[in-house]
Amino acid sequence: MPEAVLLWAPSAWTPEGWREQVVLRADGDGRWAEVTPGIATPPPDAQVLAGPLLPSLVNAHSHAFQRAFAGHAERREAASDDFWSWRDRMYRVAQRLSPAQLRDVAAQLYVELLKGGYTQVCEFHYLQRDVDGRAYADPLAMSWALAEAAAETGIGLTILPVLYERAGFGTPLRDDQRRFRSSAEEVWQAAATIASARRPLLGAGLAIHSLRAARPESIADLCRRAEGFAGPIHIHVAEQTAEVRDCVATTGARPIQWLARGRLLDARWQLVHATHSDAGEIAAVARSGAGVVLCPSTEANLGDGLADLLGWLAAGVPLTIGSDSHVTRDWREELRWLEYGQRLARQQRNVAAAPEAGMAASAERLFGRTLAGCAAAAGVPTWGLVPGARADALVVDRHEDALLGLPASHTLDALLFSSPGRSWRNVLVAGRWVIRDGTHARAAVIGERFTATMHALA
After folding, report:
1. If pLDDT is split at 50, 70 and 90, which confidence band does 420 have?
2. What is the DSSP string of 251-286?
3. How large is the C-alpha radius of gyration of the chain?
4. Which pLDDT does position 419 carry in this prediction?
5. For 12, how many CA atoms within 13 A lie in the half-sphere containing its CB?
6. Gap between the Cα atoms of 217 and 133, Å rounded
7. If DSSP codes are grouped into helix, strand and coil, which group holds residue 360?
8. What is the pLDDT of residue 32?
9. Distances in whole angstroms, Cα of residue 221 to Cα of each of 47, 111, 217, 225, 232
10. In 116-240, which ranges are continuous DSSP H helix?
11. Average pLDDT over residues 360-382
């Protein structure tokens, strides 16, 4: 259950940026009731924090089962290797996992995500059926496995059941995709059932795998069902150039262009990757109010390409990040790669900074814009160190090597661009400390289960 908490932080990141000597009070519902800067003397019953306090971030795109594949696809036996060959190998793992094994893999991942500064994860969940392609006796067996892992670790979870019905434009599902098959009705019912369970820190949204994997009629069906639905709607879009070419050949439009022309997009929609976009598509997304979920470490690992970060920033499109395939599990590294990819491509430094708008620090602009997109991506009302938001936060270890001797105003600069860094000192979720002194109370037990599952899969 959430706890009433009173904290005093030497500094904290608020919507106005860094503020000094901040009192934060969480109520018994696990939400911030008060965030007050300028309180020089800590209240007598307050926990005095040892370092600065940051809001946590939402991990807006996760395939938890792929944590079992991290590190297993970094060798090349054939003449070439790309996203599509990686995907074929990843499917072999997907075909073997049981609900219990998925729970073990997800629990290990969620501990790592908490240590990496995420306190909410959005599961783009398409591994839904039994190994033979039939529905489980409980069709949500795999969803509940994820929910159990999240409950054990203390992370917030938004499950996004995925519409997935074909291998490509006009191509039926392959046999190694049999566990992914789902209809608009099944997706809608799954989301409704998950939401109605009313489990603590568990929510639900909707997802469409991609335009290549869902028929236009089914997308329209799901959208009709979702009229009045307030939760998030996520979709993979324009991740690879081959996908864009196939979409143009089949529909006469680029993927983002197709979504915009159909007037499907609104503030609920989250476009995952959106790597290959043009100026017209960016403008259309901005007009719609939809957000974009960038996954820099996975996009780099898979050789997908670089998103037009400056285009999305300039247009004011809401941004979030996801660790996707989980080759990394720390938001600092995602934001670092988001900036470094642009530096390499443009041969410039501090690409994300905007001194003309009063934002000279790349780290602060990236963090602030990502933080602002978190609530919509996760389907929650608000996010951050603000009254009404869930009482989640990260305590910075100011004795970390990267921060020694550095002015407090450069804390975010060093956290992102002076690496590697330690795990967060303490992590708070809904008013409860789930990481203390860099340690999760269940980490050893969860690690043993994960190791046993990995040996069984091997």
Report:
1. confident
2. HSS-HHHHHHHTT---TTEEEEE--S--HHHHHHHH
3. 21
4. 79
5. 26
6. 23
7. coil
8. 98
9. 51, 37, 6, 6, 16
10. 141-153, 184-196, 216-225
11. 98
CATH of domain 5-55+385-443: 2.30.40.10
Q: What is the CATH number of domain 57-378?
A: 3.20.20.140
Among this protein's residues, is 399 annotated catalytic? no
Catalytic one of 61, 273, 276, 326: 273
Mean pLDDT of 122-138: 97
Of the candidates 235, 146, 162, 127, the residue with the CA atom closest to the CA atom of residue 197: 146
Phi, psi at 302, each rounded to 5°: -90, -5
What's this model's pTM, rounded to 2 decimal places?
A: 0.97
Helices and strands (H and E) in the chain: how many: 14, 19
Among the listed residues 324, 330, 392, 397, the single catalytic one is: 324
pLDDT tens digits, 233-249 = 999 999 999 999 999 99
Give residue 422's pLDDT band: very low, low, confident or very high (50, 70, 90): confident
Structure tokens at 453: 């599952």
Cis peptide before 42 (omega within 30 of 0): no
Strands 393-395 and 53-54: antiparallel
Confirm if 250 and 242 have CB atoms less than 8 A apart: no
CA distance to 82, 110, 111, 237, 363, per residue, from 304 (Å): 8, 25, 28, 12, 24
Q: Phi and psi of 95, rounded to 5°?
A: -75, -10
Q: Which two tokens stand for residue 403?
A: 């921060």
Is 273 designated active site? Answer: yes
The domain spans of the chain are 5-55+385-443, 57-378
Q: What is the pLDDT of residues 49-72, one digit of tens each?
A: 999 999 999 999 999 999 999 988
Size (the chain), residues: 458
Identify which of 190, 271, 285, 280 has the alpha carbon closest to the alpha carbon of residue 238.
Answer: 271
Going from the C-alpha of 342 to that of each of 291, 305, 345, the distances in angstroms are 20, 11, 5
pLDDT tops 60 at residue 1: no
